[in-house]
Specification:
CATH topology of the largest domain: Rossmann fold
CATH superfamily of the largest domain: P-loop containing nucleotide triphosphate hydrolases
Number of domains: 2
Number of helices: 9
Largest sheet: 7 strands, parallel
Order of helices and strands: HHEHEHEEHEHEHEEEEHH
Shape: globular
CATH architecture of the largest domain: 3-Layer(aba) Sandwich
Helix content: 40-55%
Radius of gyration: 21 Å
Strand content: 15-25%
Structural class: alpha/beta
CATH class of the largest domain: Alpha Beta
Number of strands: 10
Length: 273
């Protein structure tokens, strides 16, 4: 398949009009020529689309497999569903491999794109899965987790082994927060693409005295009738924006999600019905 057709197909399935600066930069650096890349760019800057471009190229033109490595099972499931929805219609067979660390999963030999957790794929290598040699593209999502005390060692060993047994495979490594991209690029034998492109503006500020004060000097007064988190939710919804809370415990997450739903329903529920 020609490069132009691959690009057009990916643009169509992602419902966009054209590639953004990060994606255009990856093309210029040879992502469809088999070049390995470490990509450091903000969240939602289209890094997954790069895996789709390279994945179609390696599967349709080289008859090789893509393995997409994720640090979390939930993320792996999300990518699996997304890839399957977009590309199964084109004959791309997508599989998910998580859990059950005592199997080599021989059934994966029949699939083109394999989405797996880091731990599961480490297990597959140790069980000497016979189809490993058919891999032509390795994608490591959230590569900054190399620095994580609990997850980093597994990822580092996994990539080290893959480099050794698949020396000709293309490698793509993605992160939004990586600080040592050049060092990782040198280790992986990959070019480094750095970009600050962000499709959705990120506003920064502080919460003080019942007000949100943004660093661009805008100020928003919060409701005094609600708790702190609830008032932030209300303010954000009224501005028709999105937000994400990072809390320490699952119980807190569930509690705040219920409160947020009630606030959203009170503001918009009746109007939508």
């Amino acid at each position: 398949m020609e490069e132009k057709e691959i690009i057009e197909r990916v643009i169509l399935e992602n419902k966009i009009e054209k590639l953004n600066p990060v994606q255009q930069g990856a093309l210029k650096m040879g992502i469809l020529k088999g070049e390995s890349l470490v990509v450091s760019s903000p969240t939602s800057s289209g890094k997954t689309l790069l895996a789709e471009l390279a994945g179609l190229n390696v599967t349709l033109n080289k008859r090789k497999k893509m393995v997409y490595l994720c640090p979390l099972v939930a993320l792996a499931r999300e990518k699996y569903e997304d890839f399957k929805r977009k590309y199964q219609k084109y004959g791309i067979k997508v599989a998910l491999s998580v859990g059950n660390y005592d199997s080599s999963d021989p059934w994966l030999e029949k699939f083109d794109w394999i989405v797996a957790s880091n731990e599961k794929f480490d297990s597959l290598i140790r069980h000497e899965a016979p189809w490993i040699g058919e891999i032509g593209l390795i994608v490591a999502d959230e590569i900054h987790l190399l620095d994580d005390p609990s997850r980093g060692p597994t990822l580092e060993i996994l990539l080290t082994i893959l480099k050794e047994i698949l020396p000709k495979a293309q490698i793509l490594a993605f992160s939004a927060t990586i600080k040592n991209a050049d060092e990782i690029g040198e280790w992986l034998g990959a070019k480094v693409l750095k970009s600050n492109f962000r499709p959705v503006p990120l506003y920064k500020g502080i919460l003080f005295g019942g007000k949100i004060k943004l660093f661009d000097f805008k100020e928003y007064k919060l409701s005094q009738e609600l708790g702190l988190e609830e008032s932030i939710v209300e303010n954000t919804l009224l501005m028709k924006k999105q937000l994400i809370f990072f809390l320490s415990f699952k119980k807190e997450c569930r509690g705040l999600s219920r409160k947020a739903f009630k606030i959203g329903f009170s503001l918009f529920g009746r109007k939508r019905n």
